[in-house]
Amino acid sequence: MTDTSEAVPNFEEMFANRFTEDDKEYQEYLKRPPEMPPIIEEWNSRSGGNQRNRGNRLQDNRQFRGRESRRGWPSDNRSNQWHGRSWGNNYPPQHRQEPYYPPQYGQYGYNPRPPYGYY
Amino acid sequence: MALEQAKTSVNSETETSFSIDETTTASGTGFSVKTSVCGQVDTPKKRKEFEDDLVEESSRYEEDSPSKKRKLDIEIVPEEKGSGDVEGVSRKRKLETDDLKDEPSTGDGTQKKRKVELEDVPERQKNLEGGHSSTVAAHYNELKEVGLDKRSQSRIFYLRNFNNWIKSVLIGEFLEKVRQRKNRDITVLDLGCGKGGDLLKWRKGRISKLICTDIADISVKQCQQRYEDMKNRRDEYIFNAEFITADCSKELLADKFRDPEVRFDICSCQFVCHYSFESSEQADMMLRNACERLGPGGYFIGTTPNSFELIRRLEASETESFGNEIYTVKFEKKGHYPLFGCKYDFNLEGVVDVPEFLVYFPLLTEMAKKYNMKLVYKKTFLEFYEEKIKNNENKMLLKRMQALEPYPANENSKLISEKVDDYEHAAEYVKNSHVRLPLGTLSKSEWEATSIYLVFAFEKQQ
To answer: Is residue B235 situated within a structural domain?
Structure first.
């Protein structure tokens, strides 16, 4: 250890509480509900069908666009958001009412209202 | 990690399905050819499994798509740099969405190939590589068996695709950020490039210059071959590239760059940086390589296991290990977690145990300060997904990449997992009224494996 050797001790001291009850960040993390797999409705991926189908589908859902605009994410979304797309789904993104990190079920597509029990 | 390996295999399998679609539809064929070549080679690398293949898929789509081409033509004309840059913004999007749309035709080819060949399958172990050339070779040989293994490999097909999507979106996000500042001459360092699973992404991203480095020589060669194939494939624009085999935790990469003064806008380190946490010196060297040559406002982005999640699961386990039928993580000791050298074995899909080292993220954040790096964010894969899926283009990309599994399965196919419990969450969800089927989801087993990871981004301060 050369130049880093000095730093190491500092880190040891700095993070002496790691993963313990005094590790606030870790303790906060432990409070999170278990993460459940993402769920998206109306999932017609390529394997499931051909593109033509997808295209149609989009149009069908078009009405729902727009709902979603609520927040602009840091860099990427804004402009891309709902302008016409060719296929895929356009259901509005999620309508989650709660904070989001314990994201349970990802998307509630399509339906403006989350299904019972999920949000 | 195992994940990567898995990816490979996945691809192969995937291909099948994809091939059908894509090939048919699109021009994938041409690509396929290339791919195959690459594919075979690939084996050795690291764990790219997770991502690489996947990535390509997405990329392929993008690449191929007509729209891109057009752009390309225009851009291409000048030099790579110029062209790429010009496109800047638009490209980004393409990265994610546009390409995809078009993609059917083009992109597919590539992926398919790989998948077919299975190339990726074996590889894992890249870490080891130093002394593992023989191992690598062995893996290589194993590749041929992939076909047979498809099933098992396919078991993490969606997982890999999902991870690949995560990478695609992450890369797209930060390329966009860079473009807000400059639109030309975007230069990227791919630290731990593996066989080049992200090449298409960078191409999509219209960068001007890419330096790929990996500890595994075979991987780097495959990466280079893949790049050459891409370059020859079409008239499309592609960045300039440089390939370096080196252990980024032990060697100073700057000494190996063609242009010693090169400055990067982004350093991407996907599923790799935890290997360097074997010692403080190695972690520091990795960070130095990743960050020292970043220009002001440059980004260090990547994916790595979330130590909070690892330890949470470990401590909830009655033994020193945890996992499921897809993955297992085995620590040497519970309750004692050194900052460096906290080794654990990660086994994915029964493939090779690759030793990894716990990365206590607050430590990484602190160490990065030495290189004037400030944390932009760190997010679990789920957090990242939840945020990014709100963008419709990202969502479409998700579909194109087949990053979620249809539930229930189509008439002609089966769910990837035979365990009913793996879809309990989906079955429960379906009980709700107004649910539009099919759902897209991941089996719990796959989700447990991928939800170990987090996404991070640091920005170089002025």
So the answer is: yes
Q: Do B25 and A25 touch (CB under 8 A)?
A: no
| Crossing angle between the packed helical segments B52-64 and B28-42, to the nearest 10 degrees | 160
Q: Is B235 exposed, middle or buried (0-12, 13-18, 19+ CB in 10 A)?
A: exposed
Question: Into how many domains does chain B fold?
Answer: 2
Distance between CA atoms of residues B270 and B291, nearest Å = 15
Q: Do B254 and B63 form a contact (C-beta atoms < 8 A)?
A: no
A117: which 2 tokens?
Answer: 């029990």
Average pLDDT over residues B306-327: 97
Q: Does residue B223 sit in the same domain as residue B369?
A: yes
Residues B102 and B27: their CA atoms lie apart, in Å, by 10
Whether B418 and B388 map to the same domain: the answer is no
Mean predicted confidence (pLDDT) in A43-50:
53
The residues pairing with B243 across neighbouring beta strands, listed in sequence order, are B212
Q: Name residues 5-64 of chain A within 8 A of B (Cβ).
A: 5, 7-8, 11-12, 14-15, 18-19, 25-26, 29-30, 35-48, 50-51, 54
- With an 8 Å Cβ cutoff, are B436 and A5 in contact? no
Domain that holds residue B373: 151-307+352-404+456-460
Please answer whether residues B287 and B367 qualify as being in contact, where contact means their C-beta atoms are separated by less than 8 angstroms: yes
| SS3 label, residue B13 | helix
Question: For B251-261, how does the pLDDT look when each residue is reduced to its tens digit (9 = 90+)?
Answer: 999 999 999 99
CA B138 to chain centre: 23
Distance from C-alpha of A63 to C-alpha of A47, rounded to nearest angstrom: 25
CATH of the domain at B256: 3.40.50.150
B410 touches A at CB < 8 Å: yes
